[in-house]
Amino acid sequence: MRGLLRRLAIMLPRVLADPLAPIMVLSLVLALSLCLRLLELDQPCSTPCKLSSPHALIFDENYYVNAARVIDGINPPKGAPYHGAPRGDDPNAEHPQLAKLVIAGGIRLFGDGPWGWRVGSVLFGLIAMVALYGLVRASGGSQWLGVGVVGVMGSDNLLLVHGRIGTLDIYAVSLMLVAAWFYMRGWHLGAGVVLGVAGCMKEVALLLLVVLVVFEGLRVARARWVRGSAVGWPRFAARPLLIAIVGSVLCFLGLLWLLDVLVPAYDPVHHVTYAGSPFTHLFHIYEYAQHLTAKPNETGITSTPWQWLLDQKVIEYGRLARNTVRDGKVISTHTLASFKGEINPFIIFVAVPALFTGVLAAWRDSDELAMIGVCWLLGTFPIFALESLLSGRISYIYYMVIVMPGIYILTTRMFTKT
Predict the structure, then answer these.
(1) What are the φ and ψ backbone dihedral angles of 54, each rounded to 5 degrees?
(2) Which residues, in sequence order, are CB contacts of 277 under 8 Å at separation 6+?
(3) Alpha helices, DSSP H only, in 72-187?
(4) Tell me: the pLDDT tens digits for 242-300?
(5) Cβ atoms within 10 A of the Cβ of 294, count?
């Protein structure tokens, strides 16, 4: 046994030093994540589960899947959201249409059931993991560090659940990561175009522009501090940033206009159709968001951004349980499937110290990976906090889906040597 352990100790460094080793481990992580996302994808469901009707929609799938049904010309069941809405339109006008079009495409391919509702989320969840690896590498991180960051992302319950249910956030964050990856590779126009597409998945994806502005500002500030003199802002940062901003804005507005023409957004409350100017649709999105305010002392699933940092106000998205009944009374309950909006406690509890170590590395060592992780947090989380503080904007813990990539980077980096 000692001889075997000795041989393994000799072989392991050689295996890990092989350039293909990180790619192989990354492939295993992605394969495992795919299996976990596909595992019991049809749950929760009542028995028997041969048709789509016994399958329960999870949380906000009730809105987005039913909107996708209407886009596909399917009238949702009576009592469900958007029942009776004009078929072919998108009755969920408070968000752009693109992610719901992907769900509608899934329904066309796989039928009006769990696979049709959720296969797009599974695919974009994997895209997010690959893009996060690409972002780490483009920011100067090693292959193994990239694998570690992806592994941390794969171990987070919040992203796992959103990578297997038919909601919009996974579509937005996956393309945010692709855009950030492209930007750090120097493909600034491509980054802007991808970000414009991400905004049409869910408008909150455009917060990446704030991340990039903070990133370039921090990079310039540090360079000026080290050199002791002004660094030319236009030459150093403004051109790539401007290209990305203009590209994203033009792509977002152009694509939103095209979507409004092809799949008009319909407001079922005021019976207004947005099929022309993207600006009128954007104004509706903004106006709708302004009415989402929290009430004092309100109970339920709403939470403040400060509670997210403590992993509080977890949301029970969906649950399927089997009751054992004796003499007409329930004597025990066994949970068969549970879907929770909950962050991996270890990841979120080390987020704040990881942020401080990231700030130190970014400023002292000009570590671009630490810098992008810090700026991702500073460009997303404070926006939600300010909205909650200043306007009383209603918020939920799943908003952290957009924030988490920065935390994955910083928490993983904190436990590495470089």
Answers:
(1) -70, -15
(2) 257, 260
(3) 98-110, 114-138, 143-154, 157-162, 169-185
(4) 999 999 999 999 999 999 999 999 999 999 999 888 999 999 999 998 888 766 656 67
(5) 16
Cα distance from N-terminal residue to C-terminal residue, the chain: 34
Query: For residue 26, which amino acid is it?
Result: L
Q: Which are the contacts of 10, defined by CB distance < 8 A and separation ≥ 6?
A: none
**Is it the case that residue 234 has pLDDT exceeding 60?**
no
In degrees, rounded to 5, the angle at the alpha carbon of residue 169 between the alpha carbons of residues 148 and 57 is 115
Residues 283 and 272: beta-carbon distance below 8 Å: no
Burial of 23 (0-12, 13-18, 19+ CB in 10 A): middle
Structure tokens at 271: 């019976």
How much is the average pLDDT of 102-128?
97
User: What are the beta bridge partners of residue 90?
Assistant: 265
Confidence category of residue 326, pLDDT binned at 50, 70, 90:
low
Look at residue 337 and tell me whether its pLDDT is greater than 80. Answer: no
Cα separation, 181 vs 174, in Å, equals 11
User: 315 Cβ partners below 8 Å, 6+ apart?
Assistant: 59, 301, 340, 341, 342, 396, 397, 398
pLDDT in the model for residue 56: 84
Assigned token pair, 210: 């704030």
What is the distance between the alpha carbons of residues 176 and 157, in angstroms, rounded to a whole number?
Answer: 20
CB atoms within 10 A of CB 291: 8
Torsion of CA 345, 157, 305, 67, to 10 degrees: -170
CB 176 within 8 A of CB 184: no
Q: What is the rounded distance in angstroms from the CA atom of residue 121 to the CA atom of residue 205?
A: 16
Residue 29 amino acid letter = V
If one compares 71 and 39, the residue with the highest pLDDT of the two is: 71
381/415: higher pLDDT: 381
